[in-house]
Amino acid sequence: MKFTTEQSKQMKGDYKPPIATENIAQIEPIVGNKLSLKKKSILRLSKGDITPVESNVTVALDFSVSMKKKYADGTMQKFLIKMLPLFDKLHCPVIDAYLFNEDFKKLKQLSYLNVETYVREIIGKSGYKFGATRFGPIIKEIIKSGDKGELERRAEATYRGEDEGEVIKSTKPRLIIIVTDGDISDGAYVKSVIDKNVRQKASPYFYIFLSLGKEEDFKFSKELSEKYINVDFVYSEDINMEDEGHLRDRLLYNYLEWANDFKKKL
């Protein structure tokens, strides 16, 4: 795949987008904001002691009625701008993106080239309507889409005459971040989807439930993170108050530890 100059810079972490100041609120230091890393109690990613892993990333954004205000007041736009640079460590130039409520809608990929106006130009013009929330369908779709892409990649490699063992070794882990303000309502279905996925040999999927609200409001999401090694639960009572460094550590530390272990098993 050929990348544009901008995308190549993104992969190296050198590209810094021109940010419109009216799109970003002034970020204040965290004061008394809780951290919720379940598997590690210390933040070390900024010290560079975890090896970056080239990954595929998908972000699923809750588009339920309760989230309407967060889109309208700029919270989600500011979050996307803050979030995108975090993935430089994953060498991921573009992010697959979905909206979801009772069903889902795939959006144009998120990148430095469109992040500044993503909510207005991409989400706002998508035609998707606010609704109730179900998590199972979107998780199942992301897995299905990832599996299809992997099968197509392997078929292409086989056509080129590449060794099957080498094809398997080149598999990238896949990070799925689900951003929501509500706990999982269809828990049994979600658990069955993740169970089936986890049973697959060398499953490449890692799930992060980024929950916007108080920890006690997301009991099932937290329960999943305690049950599965490839599920993490991170909550934020005010995402706009999150320092970028803390947010990076919270989202990526456990994932990178898991991803490095995943690569060793291939």
Question: How does the SSE layout of this entry go?
Answer:
Layout (H helix, E strand, L loop, with lengths): L4 H8 L43 E7 L5 H5 L2 H9 L12 E5 L3 E3 L11 H6 L12 H24 L4 H6 L4 E7 L6 H13 L5 E8 L6 H9 L3 E6 L7 H22 L1
Parallel strand pairs: 1-2, 1-4, 4-5, 5-6
Antiparallel strand pairs: 2-3
Helix pairs in contact: 5-7
Features:
single chain, disordered N terminus, 38% helix, alpha/beta, 14% strand, Rossmann fold, six-stranded mixed β-sheet, 266 residues
Please provide a written account of the structure.
With 266 residues, the protein is α/β, with parallel strands linked by helices. Mean pLDDT is 78; it is low at 1-8, 10-47 and 164-170. It is globular and about 45 Å long. The protein has one domain: Rossmann fold (3-Layer(aba) Sandwich), CATH 3.40.50.410. α5 runs parallel beside α7 (187-199). The protein has a six-stranded mixed sheet with strand order 3-2-1-4-5-6, sandwiched between helices. Helices cover 38% and strands 14% of the residues.
